[in-house]
Amino acid sequence: MKRTLFALGMSVLFVMTLSACGQKTAVSQKTEASKAEAQRAEVPAVQAPKPEAKEIILADFNSGKKPNNFGGDFGGWNKDPNDTTQGCKDSFTSDERYGMEGFSLQLDYDVDSPNPAYNGFWMKLGNFDATPYSKLVFYVKGDAKIGYPAKFKIELKNANGETGKYYVTQISPTWAPVEVPFSSFDGIKDFSKLTEFTIVFEDSVTRPKVGRIYLDNIGFAKD
Q: Which residue, 171, 168, 153, is CA-closest to 214?
């Protein structure tokens, strides 16, 4: 009888020991899992890279004042400021604009001079890196009442002294988009430090010699 009771007691003790070990193991596993969760929480999540914008607008003129959207100055220029028979004047207008609000840029040009004449518009770009993009874009409209040119020249200049040239011919009495691939600019190869955008009205090609155009949303885009 004593032996039976002793054996029974040992069995109970063995079961209790196993139960305690199991509880310790479960607690230990739970603790390790909690530690692993905490470690994962401490590691910041990897953020997906933001997609590059397909278009950037340098000047939308919506404020009706200078500078452009990147702090660059702009204005009209004349070959000879002392020659009052020719010139180009820039201003803002809300009567003719692309879009539902703001202003557009109005350019009134005159190359009807007895002297060699050319003038236009300039805008500083501040060494803008346009390499993520592939083309210059803007909107243009001619004034049907006053007259507008059949074509005008645009230029992009860089910090290396290069000047890229292109003739725009998409002018009409309604707003028209203009897209000029970088490959179409003659005279410039490096678009990483652009310093200036220029419009030129030349007496040799501008007809009529007195007229008006409107510009809006000058910028860069990629295909």
A: 171
Token pair for 187: 């005279």
Which structural domain range is residue 2 located in? 1-47
Q: Is the dihedral of CA 203, 185, 188, 123 positive or negative?
A: positive
Question: Which one, of 210, 220, 197, 212, lies nearest residue 105 by Cα?
Answer: 212
64: left (phi over 0), alpha (psi -120 to 50) or beta: left
CB 195 within 8 A of CB 126: yes
Instruction: For the chain, 223 residues long, give each residue's pLDDT as a single digit of tens.
Output: 444 434 444 444 343 443 444 444 444 544 554 554 544 444 444 444 455 679 999 999 999 999 999 999 999 999 999 999 999 999 999 999 998 889 999 999 999 999 999 999 999 999 999 999 999 999 999 999 999 999 999 999 999 999 999 999 989 999 999 999 999 999 999 999 999 999 999 999 999 999 999 999 999 999 8
Tell the residue number behind the tokens 């203009």, with chain if given: 178
Predicted structure pTM score: 0.76
The domain that holds 130 is classified in CATH as: 2.60.120.430
Q: How many domains does the chain have?
A: 2
Residues 114 and 70 in one domain: yes
Are both 71 and 131 inside the same structural domain? yes
